[in-house]
Amino acid sequence: MRIRTPLALAAGTALLALGLASAPAHAGKTLDAVKARGTVKCGVTNGVAGFSAPDTQGNWSGLDVDTCRAIAAAVLGDPKKAEFVPLNSQQRFAALQAGEVDILTRNTTWNMTRDASLGLHFTTVNYYDGQGFLVPKKIKVTSAKQLKGATICTQAGTTNEKNVAEWSKAQGVPVKTVVFESFEASFKAFFSGRCQAFTTDTSALAGLRNKEAPNPDDYLILPELISKEPLAPAVKRGDDEWFAIVKWVPNALIEAEELGITQANIDQLRAGSKDPAQQRLLGTGDDLGKLLGLDKDWSYHAIKAVGNHGEMFERNVGPKSALQLPRGVNNLWNKGGLLYAMPVR
User: Which of 23, 195, 272, 322 could form a disulfide with 153 if both were Cys (CB 3.0 to 4.6 A apart)?
Assistant: First the structure.
């Protein structure tokens, strides 16, 4: 009888783990359904500039829209196979739970209550935000602490109402919150003079001021942030294979920025790069697609479709976009920000 030492057992376990790690992934029921249908269905907003909004011809654009297109490109090889389903705040989680959409790419905050109790998984943060206040300059308020007694408009079914209540209590600044069923109704009430302030994520405030205000220069976003709002795509629980895909495509876009791979240079690098890290994303190195049930070129297709994460940011919400938001904490980790891709290797 052969006796195996602890060292031999450990080595065998390590080899088994390595073999399992390199085995192709089972496709999963959601990926099978997406391939059979020929589209990736993404739940998006009814219209938040910079994140997901249609133009007058029905063409969608925004950071969340690009995320969906990148996933469609990775899975189906074509960003045009992304299908957008507008959902309001009250509809979004039920639609995902019911399988009406494959992904929620809808500027939605990742918090413990949602993550632990709604039957969904958040994947990778694509925008670090915070809740703030928009006010008309004519009321001469320059700090949120001056809003004592103010009436504040916001939307029902979001974290905004609770955040305001907690901030008001903690800061000793009593306010009156007026909630509306739809986002559009809430900001229209504010711009019509129904409330002295409007509150939501500051990225959305910037979009509203630039797009919806009668005169953008008449309005001010106050400097204080009253919450943390990490925005991330979400998927329904119960399909780990699909969860992995929706988690790793955004990571690939962030790592592409770290490695200098852009929409413009990706084909040149694909033809000549000798960098193993770049090759993995370009589809010319290790075949990591098989671990996700995808083709070897999955990340190449995603980057080719929408660019790296920095390009998505710049195009949709950055200083050169209509929103003119600074990169700030949404910069890469090695440039003073919070974006840190899990290694694609």
Answer: 195
Query: 178 and 159 in one domain?
Result: yes
pTM of the entire structure?
Answer: 0.86
As a whole number of angstroms, the distance between CA 196 and CA 130 comes to 20
Q: Kindly report the number of other CB atoms within 10 A of residue 275's CB atom.
A: 14
Based on its alpha-carbon atoms, the radius of gyration of the chain, rounded to whole angstroms, reads 22
Q: To which residue do tokens 């925005």 refer?
A: 231
Q: Quickly list DSSP for 71-100.
A: HHHHHHS-GGGEEEEE--TTTHHHHHHTTS
Q: Which residue has the tokens 């045009």?
A: 80
Q: Are residues 223 and 275 in the same domain?
A: no
CA distance 233 to 120: 10
| Phi-psi label, residue 58: left if phi above 0, alpha if psi -120 to 50, beta otherwise | left
Range of the domain at 212: 131-227
Q: Does one domain contain both 265 and 300?
A: yes
Q: Which of 224, 219, 229, 191 is nearest to 51 (CA)?
A: 229
- Tens-place pLDDT, residues 199-229: 999 998 998 998 899 999 999 999 999 999 9
Out of 227, 258, 281, pick the residue that ends a domain.
227
For residue range 235-258, list pLDDT tens digits in order.
999 999 999 999 999 999 999 999
User: Looking at the domain assignment, is residue 205 inside a domain?
Assistant: yes
In the chain, how many domains are there? 2
Distance CA(126)–CA(62), nearest Å, equals 12
Q: Indicate the angle between helix axes 63-76 and 29-37, nearest 10 degrees.
A: 90
Distances (CA, A) of 205 to 137, 227, 323: 15, 14, 9
Q: Which of 57, 123, 45 is nearest to 84 (CA)?
A: 45
The secondary structure element, H or E, covering residue 223 is: none
